[in-house]
Design brief:
- With 173 residues, this protein is mainly alpha-helical.
- The chain has five helices and three strands, in the order H-H-E-H-H-E-E-H.
- The protein has a domain at 56-166: Glutaredoxin.
- The chain starts with a helix and ends with a helix.
- GO terms for molecular function: dystroglycan binding.
Length: 173
């Protein structure tokens, strides 16, 4: 008799979690139909309400023509460091707000442009490019061996680097 009651409690838990998942799914569809936007796949979870460019070429073109700086995030879906950074980036309200002032691109593959890997092709790495299409080698993270790497604990540094990318732009143009 004891085993049976354990079993029914377990089944109940499974049922509860499925229902919760279903509700969560419903909520999402309502929000996506409310305002038209690019397919969510482009954000890859870095900020679903932000506008993301599809390719490096498109990002460069938009940066140049809008005179907005470009922020490129290199990451991989199966890299725990990328996933951890993505989570804090997506949940950071100030970063998500500030990101609207950038042309945005996140990549899960490397481009042929060597300028985007000044010190190697590691992930996650975040680079800023100004509208004159110059990589901002002066805006780096805190690691000397991986200049453009950020850990989740570096999120406030990433935020101030985003501010820096915008501020320097104003003084130079």
């Amino acid at each position: 008799a004891m085993e049976k009651s354990y079993m029914s409690v377990f089944l109940l838990l499974v049922a509860i979690s499925c229902v919760l998942a279903k509700d969560a799914g419903k909520k999402d569809t309502k929000e996506t139909t409310a305002k038209p936007k690019l397919p969510q796949t482009l954000s890859r979870g870095w900020g679903d309400q932000l506008i993301w460019t599809q390719t490096y070429e498109e990002a460069l073109f938009r940066s140049k023509h809008s005179q907005k700086p470009l922020m490129i995030i290199h990451h991989l879906e199966d890299c725990p460091h990328s996933q951890a950074l993505k989570k804090v980036f997506a949940e950071h309200k100030d970063i998500q707000k500030l990101a609207e002032k950038f042309i945005l691109l996140n990549l899960v593959y490397e481009t042929t442009d060597k300028n985007l890997a000044p010190d190697g092709q590691y992930v996650p790495r975040v680079l800023f490019i100004d509208p004159s299409l110059t990589v901002r080698a002066d805006i780096t993270g805190r690691y000397s061996n991986r200049l453009y790497a950020y850990e989740p604990s570096d999120i406030s540094l990433l935020y101030s680097n985003m501010q820096k990318a915008l501020k320097l732009l104003k003084t130079e143009l």
